[in-house]
Amino acid sequence: WEQGLWRVKDDPVAKEAYLAETPGCKSVLPRIVKVGYNVLNLQYFFTAGDTEVRCWTIPAGVCAPEAAGVIHSDIERGFIKAEVCSFEDFKTLSNGQKSMAAVKAAGKYRQEGRNYVMQDGDIVHFMFNVTAAKKK
Q: What predicted TM-score, i.e. pTM, was given to this entire model?
């Protein structure tokens, strides 16, 4: 079923016809991804800026500095703190807006230190400062 849907993905008319001839069927790819992450003991977190939102994959149970290191080793080395909110809180409180203002107003935006264990679906802004070259 998935392969047939993939063959007609670029033709809206053919795609609609394919879906109509197989009523009740839906893609299982999202479920495969979720189960794969669980079996491999992985989770993800998001970073967001003005121009893009990125999803980063990390092993479950990783602390904030290690998660920052997935983005860049300098961020891990100069880690100061992480500003965190959960995706569910953002989705519930933001009302479709891109701003964190409603999340902050509700008290769901928090500052976490080096010992914070990352949770699946966290939205994170890492604060860091790297002043000197890496020690050899």
A: 0.78
**In a 3-state reduction of DSSP, which class is residue 48?**
strand
Distances (CA, A) of 27 to 2, 18, 30: 7, 13, 7
Round to whole Å and give the CA distance between 126 and 110: 12
pLDDT tens-digit series, residues 2-43: 888 888 889 899 988 888 888 888 888 889 999 999 999 999
Radius of gyration of the chain (CA): 20
CA distance 129 to 103: 26
**What does the CA dihedral 28, 1, 56, 88 come to, rounded to 10 degrees?**
-40
Task: Classify 128 in phi/psi space as left (phi over 0), alpha (psi -120 to 50) or beta.
Answer: beta
Q: Cα separation of 67 and 84, whole Å?
A: 12
Of 107, 109, 128, residue with least CA distance to 65: 128
**Nearest alpha-carbon partner for 124 in 93, 92, 81:** 81
Q: Are 54 and 46 in contact (CB under 8 A)?
A: yes
